[in-house]
Amino acid sequence: MTLDYVALAILSVVLIVFFYGIIAIHDIPYDIAKKRNHPHQDAIHYAGWVSLFTLHALWPFLWIWATLWREDRGWGMHRISEDQQAVHLQMNHLLIQMDALKNEINQLKASSAMAPASTVAKREQ
């Protein structure tokens, strides 16, 4: 009979530790966000509680969201924006060249349209 009570006590302790362990785990992304001074740390905290009630389905995404931000470099996307500006400048240069080529083609078409008319006029004389 006493072994039944010991087994019940062990089972109760394991369940309580498991329950509190899951609650402690859900808060890890918020702790990371708080440590990194994340601008969305409140949203990460609330989403952590929502994730707790959805059996931690959102938890990996919260972890990623919290770890992407660093106070010294932000989201780390500065290089990408610099590359995009370089591509934008190249694109503008190509568009200017394309417009110049279109104008040149239109001038050639206009001069070639006039050339046959002048050759026809010469034949008639």
Number of strands: 0
Measure the end-to-end span. Answer: 130 Å
Query: Count of helical segments?
Result: 5
What letter string, H or E per element, gives the SSE order? HHHHH
Integer tally of domains: 2
Q: What is the helix fraction of residues, given as a range?
A: over 70%
Strand content: under 5%
Global structural class: mainly alpha
Low-confidence stretches: none
What is the averaged pLDDT score?
87
Major sheet: size, sense and barrel closure? none
Determine Rg (CA atoms, Å).
35 Å
Dominant shape = rod-shaped
In terms of topology, how is this protein built?
Layout: H1 2-26, H2 28-35, H3 41-53, H4 59-68, H5 78-124
Question: Can you describe this structure?
Answer:
- There is one protein chain.
- The chain is mostly helical and 125 residues long.
- The chain has two domains: 1-76, no CATH class; 77-125.
- Helix content is 82%, strand content 0%.
- The chain contains five helices and no strands.
- α2 (28-35) packs parallel to α4.
- It starts with a helix and ends with a helix.
- The model has no long low-confidence stretch (mean pLDDT 87).
Short synopsis of the structure:
This protein is mainly alpha-helical and 125 residues long. Helix content is 82%, strand content 0%.
Question: Can you tag this structure with a few keywords?
Answer:
single chain, 125 residues, rod-shaped, 5 helices, mainly alpha, 2 domains
